[in-house]
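Cont'd.
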Amino acid sequence: MRKQLFNVGAILQGLGITFKYMFAKRPTIEYPSIKKQHAPRFHGLHELRRYADGKERCIGCELCSSACPANAITVIGAENSPDARVSPGERRAASYEIDELRCIFCGLCEEACPTDAIVLTPRFEMADYRRGAFVYSKDRLLVPTDAGVGTPPDERPNGIPADLGRVAEVKSTTNVDRGYSATHRGEVLKTERKGLAG
Amino acid sequence: MPVVKVLTDGIGEVDLTDIAIYRQRDGYRQWERAVRELQSSEVLDIAERSGLRGRGGAGFPTGKKWSFLPAGDKPRYLVCNCDEAEPGTFKDHMLLERAPHLVLEGILLGTYGIGSHHAFIYIRGEFKRGYEIFSRALEAARAAGFVGKNLFGTGYDLEVTIHRGAGAYICGEETALLNSLEGKRGEPRLKPPFPAIAGLYGMPTVVNNVETLAYLVPILRNGPEWFAAVGTERSKGYKIISISGHVRKPGNYEVPLGTTVRELIEIAGGLREGRTLRAVQPGGGSSACIFEEHLDLPYDYENMAKAGSMLGSGAFVVFDDTTDFVKCAFNLVRFFAHESCGQCTPCREGGHWLETVLHRFVEGRGLASDLAMMRRVSSTITGLNLCALGDSIEPFLKSVLQRFPEQFEARVLREVASA
Amino acid sequence: MSSAPATSDLVSLTIDGVPLQVRKGTLLVEATKMVKQEIPVYCYHTKLGPAGLCRVCLVEVEGTPKLQIGCNTPVAEGMVVRTRGENVEKGRAMVLELLLVNHPLDCPICDKGGECDLQDYAIAYGRGSSDLADPKTSKPKAVDLGPTIVLDEERCVVCQRCVRFDDLIVGERQLVLKDRGHRNMIATATGDPYRHNFTGNVTELCPVGALTSKTYRFKSRPWDLRRTETSCTQCSVGCRMNIDLRHGNVLRTMSVEGDDAVSDWWLCDRGRYNIGYIDSPERIKQPLLRRDGTFVQIGWDDAFALWAKAIRSAIDAGGPERVAAIGGGRLTNEEAYLLARTMRSLGVKNLDWRAGRQRQATPGSSGGTLLDLERAGAIVTIGESPAELAPVMDLRVRKAVRHGARLIRVAAQEAPPSMPFQDVADVAAAAAAIPANVTRVALIWDGVDNALAHAAFAALSREGRTLLTYIAGEQGNARGAEAMGMLPFAGPGYHVADAGHDFDGICDAALSGKIETLAIFGANPVLNSADGAHVRAALQAIPFLVVTELFMTETAKLASLVLPAAGAFEKSGSMVNLAGDVLPTSAALAPPDGVLGDFEIVVGLARALEIELPDSDEIERATIAAAAALPVGIAFGDERFAGAAKKDLSGEGLRLHVLHHAFAGGGTLAHDERIAALQPEPTAAFAAADADRLGIRAGDRIDLVGAGGTIGDLLAERRDTLAPGNVAFVGLRSGSAANEIAVGSRVRVENIRHSDVPVEA
């Protein structure tokens, strides 16, 4: 009898947890209709930016490809025609390809770029059925001419670009203002570290 | 006053461009004597014993220079450097226009002295009048039988060719002059080989200044001892000094070497009323300034070098207390940058850089860091250049930066400097 | 004579604490390399000598107050030199800082970035920062200097290597330094396009990115390139050459530093720039069989089977004399050897490499090396000069002339060279024109007229004089082909063999129906032989003509079977250059799919014919033995090489001479659009007397009409050095009627159109 009562208590305790979470805020989000906010310097899909006058920033110098530790970038340069300039100087990128399957999203290309042309956006959805589709060329990397200049690397918003759809209102695991807790398998190693850099 | 009249004798009194008047005053007598009575080696010996040093700037002993020519049957040439363009120098200009026959006789004697049969005179492009006067003088001398074939019946031939420059300062540098004379771009040659070994058209060549050659005439007339008796221990004889700047009577003054700096200023009439001396540039645009403490130094090669400057071509520029040394420095550096042939890096780039920076100072837009940079750049490029032009940028700039830093500091843009 | 210098010629000195002995007169910059130290240089170049302009090669010499320039300071006994240390580093850092004062920092877009001396030295010796606070001087960028070169004035560091190359090496003196001070700029003296046969070398000499090749501009960065060293096979000099590939495309070719024996470190523009044909879409990529007048694609197995069947049936019907093979001048030694061996094993004796105007390629036992040539005291050219046939050899001629050699041209038709020369009418006059004290004479022949060569050799031979002979002909490996036995009368190593027909004989036999099948390997006789119309008729008379080619040439169009062959950069092997040097060629890239090398083609044929072939080791041994064989039995102007008596070409009118030009012709030149601007304007040169008689002024447009056709719209030129009665035509190209008119036949001038602006002759 006592044993049975104990069991009822356990059931109630369990139900209590269940009921508690029925009213708690849900941690799951309905991806892909709702998306999670990222760390401010999340490294996602690349983007080739433009100048305000519409010219490409990329000059085809290949410094990104030589900096790339994964050999994911292939650039072939060409000469700008003085009549129809694609980029400001004499040189332009005739072809710019990134194999996103090889890419390790380290951001060294962004560091190496002398003109801030290549930047890593927070976009991450690149799923496809064909491997070949992961080789992104200029037609997909370049900011469309009517979409402004692209995201400057230093002014990246703390979140997701508007064109990615509805953004989840969950708090990110990391927050610049609040700091974050460093955990390992549930154990908090370090808490409330202020800011990412500090 | 130690002003003498040796080369300047008769200038301003009689028309020495007239060969008849020149001959009345013993003209071409030494030339005739040399060809008739003296061996070339004797002329060389006289030049050597007189202690005559090059009057163009470097002050190299003339006889010694001649003796560097290798023996052999290759043709050899004498080139008279009349491309006088050093800022502040105007003595050759005067000699060419006022005493062309004296210059010519000097050239003839020099050519004979090195055993050559062909002399060239390279006349600065701007000296149009001098060129015309000298051309007439040469024709007159040729007509009188002093230039040409079989001179005085001795079988000795001598030809003189006149070449006009095109206005480049760098062509006053002897190897650039030779290039220009050959019809090439006027830029200094890499040395070695020196002109004495491979000069004009690859042949042994001596290049002498107008004044140097002109002094051969009185030296031959009066003997080498007469010339060597004047001057200081290693700076013998006389020199025409072109005094200019803040003096009352600027002009060419011929004096014995060793006359003090103070005397030279007095010869030129002294400073104007109420002015005080700030600096003297004793040897042309390429020389460093000397100051009040050097006033009693004898003006000769050694003492000017000891004072950190040089005698150079004898261009003596006096600066009083109204002088803006920033502008002076800019003017000279601009000159050297403009006249750089541009073949070697330190002179081409260094000169232009310093010019740009000094221009900012003149406009009052200097930077505090520029002062150290100008000292560093100007001193480091000195000695790295292919020819002396690049090494000429530093001396004046350095001496005035050191002596009058307040003039430069006053032009530093304060807002930027404190930012 | 021992090669080790006598002790008295040696000077002992110490460089960076290392004692060494070097030859007297050695410059410090060279001596330093011997102790494995580097002195940075911009203006100094081993082949151009010192200029003392850049001032970056500063060294400290003990006992001299100022820093010395390493490039113009010769070694001296007991000299103590330091190539580093505080003073040296300070001086060098200053020079580098100054060089960068006006040098744009556009390294990311500069073609030199990554292999730039200014970058490298700025990092190795520079300060790392600059006090420069003012804007840099602005100068013209992307200046179109000529058909090959683009100049960026801002990047120029005024080392004048290009100017000195043009003056000291080429002697053209087209490039000059204009203006002075920091405003100075490189330009051509006249403002005309920069154009001669060696312009591309300035892009390699330029230590920065001021001079770049139009063909390579912005195509790649140096670290992308994969390099293969090979020999150039465009002409018979065989310059050592580096091929740089990216993504399987040949992007540029570079000379090989240190190749003193062959190229003297230079390349001609033909060798450097004629690389665009490799990926031309017009290349044949499948065997083509003529069926009912059109070509159809077939497989390789079928092609070999058809070919073998044709040979077998020809031999069965009339014996091996009804079979013939032509080729070798464009093949490697191994290919030529295997071809000759396969054919001879069938009993075929009608073998020849000659399919153009050249008759002989081996200059006999008196043949000299290219290094000998530059030490000659007199140089006599008979026939066409090597200026267009072997341009890099011509640089040796220019070098010799600069060192005082006398250049004597016998009955020359070309324009006067840009160096001192003497034109004489015949070989007797040439012999008389050689100064008596000259002990080493070079005789250069184009390989065409054997009787003339024989006479010249006899006339110039003299007691106490070394006569060195050279043949600068048309095809790259012509000498190798002769050594490999592609001759009707000699087998490998010049061993005498049973004589068959030479090319002329094959043509004559074909016209009388005695040749059943002929295989032409890499030759275009319809365009290049002296009488194209005759050759065309002969080839059309052959029932089964096989041609291996890269492109549908005039000859390939006549074939029954066209086989796609690999190009020069797509196969490995060896060649023998005109001086007898055996040079390796290395495949830099694979041929396109479906294309075989000539070696594989011969192997395929042999298999189809069931002929036993030697293994590759034996081929290699035999090839080397044949290539190294001394041409002892061969005379200069050997009569065995001479062609049959010429057709009677006499008649009324001017005698037509078709002169070679490095960029005029078919084949690889016709299918390379990158070098279109380098092809010469078709020009006819007349002797002054003929021009006056015909009323032709320089700059006029004229037509030349001969027995075979009309060469239309030629630019007329007056040439005082040309003998009256001759007209010299330059500008042969595919489709031109020029090869329909026999070389040496008579032409008349028609349709003279005077130009409005007379051109000064």
